[in-house]
Amino acid sequence: MFLSRINFILPSKDVFPILEIFRILSCLRYSTYAKAFSLLFSAVLLFTIGCGISNDKLIEQYNDFAIRSAKANLWNEAILKWERIIEIDPKNANAHNNLGVAYEATERFDEALAEYQKAIELEPQNEVYQRNFFKCQQNKKRSWHAEEMVKEDEKDP
Question: Is the pLDDT of residue 25 over 60?
């Protein structure tokens, strides 16, 4: 239900060769030489990436990780990554929307509504953000109504 409301941004083509190299190295890990090469290559690659990666590429990688986490119902992991994206780029409306979806999935409705509102403020014409805000308001009302019904059932023996 919630995954259909996340805005997917695919990583740039520059990221795919790096992911492919890690995939190949993970297949070679049984050889001692492959392990040594893998460690050395990983260290050089991480140093290079750490020195030269742009915020845009970092945001793409965090977003990709967050989306994979959300697909696996690991909403807290997704929340951490989208919060990190917003720390890097507070005007990223897509991240605010996706963070709202994650908050809503974990029934943190007030936080979700705040994130949807920020996304709408940044991109007022985006109908997806507006629709997500409206759906979250409805879900919050349903949740509140369900809680009230449970309280009433507990009072009446």
Answer: no
